User: What shape does this take?
Amino acid sequence: MKKTGYLLLMGGLLLISKGAMAAETEEPEYTLLTQTGDFELRRYDEQLVAQTWVSGDQDAASREGFKVLADYIFGNNTAPTGGSSKISMTAPVTMQPNNKKSETDSQKIAMTAPVSMQQEDGKWRVQFTMPSQYTMQTLPKPNNPNVEIIEVPAQTYGVIKFSWLAGEDKVAEKTKALQTWMQDQNLTPTGEPELARYNPPWTLPFLRRNEVMIAYESK
Assistant: This one.
């Protein structure tokens, strides 16, 4: 895992004090396969994520999903061996749309990422990536039945990087650009676009770090 000084949040981050987010953040390790300007191809290792489903538009779902998962990582959980500990947060926070149908001691886990949001049947699936030190056996179990832990396999992604605000129109523009670029590379998408955000809401727009990511079939 790489270290970065960026602090991650979505709109709901204002629920947490700035002091609690002053630590370094951990990002999922990946291998850079190729880079062309703002476009990259990356290979990510497998990850553990906590996820929940929420309703609303993109912004409302971001806030609600963040609140539910932040509640889990900051102590609403059951530790395997009891006691509590503080764990470094990770980055980025991600959002993913998808139109397919288909009483013990608690442990405090610092805010983590990526968080992915996936839309299905009018709801969004919001995910936090867990710190790399955890396994399925050692990760605290959520007390909230609306939070579940899943294992995400290793994946390859096409990525476009951009700064400033990540509003719906900007994200749509960048998503289209990434899809066109990947098509030119003869890459076959296997997932819906994900929006990755790396900064807290008080970060100046021109300093913000955002990405749109699309999983694709690795040859």
The radius of gyration is 17 Å. DSSP finds two helices and 14 strands in the chain.
